[in-house]
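Tutorial sheet, problem 5. The two components below are modelled jointly, 914 residues in total.
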Amino acid sequence: MKEKPGIPKGTRDFDPLEISRREHIFDTIREVYRLHGFRPIETPAMENLSTLMGKYGEEGDRLIFRILNSGDFTAKVDDKDWKDKNAARLSAQLSEKALRYDLTVPFARYVVQHQNDITFPFKRYQIQPVWRADRPQKGRYREFFQCDADVIGSDSLVNEAEFLQIIDKVFSQLNLDVVILINNREILAGLAEYIGFADHMTDITTAIDKMDKIGLEGVGQDLIDRGLTNDAVEKLKPVLELSGTNKQKIEVLSQILASSPVGMKGIEEIQEVLDIVDVTPLQCSLELDLCLARGLNYYTGAIIEVKALEVPMGSICGGGRYDDLTRVFGLKGVSGVGISFGADRIYDVMQALSRFPDGIGTYTHLLAINFGPKERDYCLPALENLRSVGVQCEMYPEPAKVKKQMQYADKNKIPFVLMAGEEEINKGVFSFRDMQSGEQQQLMLEQISTFLLKFLD
Amino acid sequence: MKEKPGIPKGTRDFDPLEISRREHIFDTIREVYRLHGFRPIETPAMENLSTLMGKYGEEGDRLIFRILNSGDFTAKVDDKDWKDKNAARLSAQLSEKALRYDLTVPFARYVVQHQNDITFPFKRYQIQPVWRADRPQKGRYREFFQCDADVIGSDSLVNEAEFLQIIDKVFSQLNLDVVILINNREILAGLAEYIGFADHMTDITTAIDKMDKIGLEGVGQDLIDRGLTNDAVEKLKPVLELSGTNKQKIEVLSQILASSPVGMKGIEEIQEVLDIVDVTPLQCSLELDLCLARGLNYYTGAIIEVKALEVPMGSICGGGRYDDLTRVFGLKGVSGVGISFGADRIYDVMQALSRFPDGIGTYTHLLAINFGPKERDYCLPALENLRSVGVQCEMYPEPAKVKKQMQYADKNKIPFVLMAGEEEINKGVFSFRDMQSGEQQQLMLEQISTFLLKFLD
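Model answer (structure tokens):
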């Protein structure tokens, strides 16, 4: 029986055009990371299950793809769990390994495992796929790429400012208009103090995080449901609605949070980051957004999020400062700050705006038409010569009908075609055709080479 | 409890130096593939289990990493199999997906699934990791990269010749001495006829494939154990021992196989491939090796293998022509030919020979010493200026002791350091230090920029 070929739900094949577009995004991010002194690492697709479990909350644990143990995986299973068909208890016995769920936890594991070989501060980037057993839907995949950079082992706010520069550079090079939103968890902690609910920090950040979806009134109701008083919520609302320039917002906040040391520290930090950034001003706008909370609980200082301005599409980049990410693996007191670009969402934004540069998706620059062995052997050395200067070229493998060979060039977006018959061979030239204009002329190899080098430049 | 961090057996972390070396190999292979008109595709890490099962033999099936189904994976399991703890029967019920085992089967699946969007002949390359639950040992990993290229939908021997050119170019650019061994399955079929055991083709190729390990006598004994007669084996031995130039071997073979149509076809094919290759001669040696059989049963024509000449290390690249790879997925009569570079083994060879180019592993070109806010803000615009022309540079985030900052430059192999104190700021210059020579001079930013661009070129 023939199998009907397909791939698992939520996964994707990428064809040459898609790859070239994705590479454009990855290359841009990678290049900017390197310009700022970040170094790459890679970690295995599989981690020990124990490395991943308990790091992403209950929901996350459920969404981790587990690898079934090899060999007789039933041998060491607990008899009672087996009898009860207790999937929850069995899964840890049937699998020791799992696919990585993000790049942050493997990075924390890497830092602890290799701490003696690492020079701190450690600036690393990592561009690799991750896997989540999430319900697939538009824009959400079970295999997708993350593009992370982190500085670990440095408290300096120079790092925060550098990440803003990196974000600005990446999106400017991708030709996308964005706004960078920043906030600081310490300011949020100060606000929690200010409204008398310092012990409700998680509730407050979780609620504020939903501002985009449920609006200010919704957030207010959610906070009341979480045990805040009406008075506290009414006190918080105008702060969340603060408008104006960053300077104006900071002035108001400085009055509100004057009696909160943690809040004032957050303000000072934001101010210092803004001051450092101002030394080499950004191209995009940078906005202090008091409604920015970011759900992840491990953030402790600056938080950052980037939104595309031309297309509605959640966050396309985010990050922040965290303390003690490595503590769970036994290394304490190491502060870090990092960002992550969402390559798949950036792809969708660029696609929607037709923002991919011309020429992307062109692989072969020149196709040599195959008229038969004699003509082929006349062309082959010419192709080798062109390759030696970087021209991507190919000989059509069979002496098929010229129309078929021309169609091959067309379908594969090959811009130029080389032909040589009796006449060209006798003259020592080649017919060189521009597929777009249809223009064709007889040229010496050196002329073709010069022309193509100019074309590629 | 702190967890002791580690990674699964047979997997690896890669640090920045290793990444730069691996990238050197991948980039070289990728660039040569592109120079010859190959286009990239990528497939998901996970395939449906049914796509992979039965394609790699019994041994292969056992070595496929399976993904445990998400949710209540016990719900749909057969009661009797569960009671019996029958791992073999249960594994297919507990998992629907598996990690890809090679790039060939996913490629065949891809071609069939997307056949209406593909222009044939389809020249694709694919550089991605694969996973095998093999017993880890020196040079054998459970996660490793394959670098494949195939032409599918073309019978022309121009393709075989092109792959030899590609192999030659890759190893020449990697500065490795290699020999390419070629043979043809039809010649082996002719030899099977010649010794009267045409129906024992698989036995014969399987035995010959072990020549490296067990020698000629061992192969002879193995063939007798597989049912060949003593006479047949004695008739075969001198052919396997044939020496001399390719031309001489072909002459002898032409006499021996004169009455075997399939054998003569194999000889003609080899001859044609050699003739096409001779049009643009190779740098490495190319040897007709009658002992080359290659274990994989799907090969039907040319077979290719590459050995490093300076280090003992099995095959570092291999390939051949196959027919009907896509038949199992419902697409018949599509011939293909392909090769695969073993990046991990090539890495080991290059490492053993210290053949990685100088400068590999250098990421940051220049570190700016941080003396404090004022000096930092004087340097930051200079760094941005250098980045705009492609210099990778970073500011040390804290105003730490200069010795510590210098050590950071040393440990990270940063070749140049930038410093500016009161004096430099007043003069509008920078102190620029060559870390290797220790030379230091005061320069204008433009001078530094010019110098670094020359250095990077």
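Marking note: Chain A has two domains: 16-185+270-353, 366-456. Full credit if you identified this.
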